[in-house]
Amino acid sequence: MWLCDLPTSALNDHWPQHTFRVLWDEGHVQKECVLFKGHKDCWNQDSVTEEQVFRCELSFEKSTVLQSELESCKELQALEPENKWCLLTIILLMRALDPLVYEQETLRYFAALKAADPMRCSYLNDLRSKFLIENSVLKMEYADSRVVDLSQKGLTSLCHLEHLLLVTHLNLSDNLLLAFPTTLAMMRCLEVMEADDNQIESLEGLPPLPSLEELSLRNNRIQQASALRTLAVFPALVQLNLQGNPLCQTPGIQSELATLLPNVTTILT
Q: Could you tell me if 168 and 249 lie in one domain?
């Protein structure tokens, strides 16, 4: 990832567009992007689907073999419904063949696998989260969207955020998240984030997001204003929703938050 903030003086308001070209000496690679008049950002991004980031391109022969293996595993699983290795193999084969086509079926096998192997439930929840986010990245690319909805997916972890660099609106509501990862720092274009109805207790470690203007954390587990201290260094944040958190029952909390976050003009408790 290469980022560049241009000073206003570098642009000519009379030109309809500016073309930027970045060159790497090694390998003589170059990337080009165009900033149109009236726009504040531009980018060049390699295709996730073309680069086969999440899976390898399969030949017809390999696909045929994997499809045959998948059917064999399903037959075995019908005979041994609680065979956890069989269930995991089915999930991985479906991911290799086509993650989007098999998405709903994969989720059903995950549910069966967690029931058969409760000792590894946390690992399986994170693996399930990883696969769902990969699918969302693929769908986002097909739609060329900068708005990503990851709500109501039962996510326990966040990954692959390096593929969401251009996203401006992110919905993480109604999941099972306990905290935000430090890798969220890569989302420099993020303007609105919803993380309602999770299990978040603190924002400690959350890096400053330079473009974030609105943050909603309704119905989480935040108990003290100090857990929000990191938001004081978010330069663009103007609206914060904390309704439904335990700290809202604290006497004088509105005044305490106003002192802690003087630049946030709207704080809902």
A: yes
The reported pTM is: 0.81
pLDDT at 86 exceeding the cut of 70: yes
Q: What residues have CB less than 8 Å from 65, skipping those under 6 apart?
A: none
Whether 167 and 103 share a structural domain = no
Contacts 24+ apart (CB under 8 A), 67-76: 67/97, 69/93, 70/94, 70/97
| Count of domains observed in the chain | 3
Q: Residue 204 sits in a domain of what CATH number? A: 3.80.10.10
Tell me which of 103, 132, 161 is where a domain ends: 132
Does 108 map to a domain? yes
pLDDT of residue 50: 44
Residue 20 CA: distances (Å) to CA of 145, 153, 207, 213, 227: 23, 39, 29, 28, 42
Name the more confident of 30 and 119: 119
CA–centroid distance for 25 within its chain: 32
In the 8-state DSSP scheme, what is residue 55?
S
Q: What is the DSSP letter of 28?
A: G
CB–CB of 157/179 below 8 Å? no
Using a pLDDT cut of 70, give the percent of the chain over it. 79
Which range of residues forms the domain containing residue 240? 146-268
Distance CA 166, CA 233 (A): 21
Tens digits of residue pLDDT in 167-217: 999 999 999 999 999 999 989 889 999 999 999 999 988 889 999 999 999
Residue with tokens 């944040």: 237
For residues 32 and 60, membership in a common domain is answered with: no
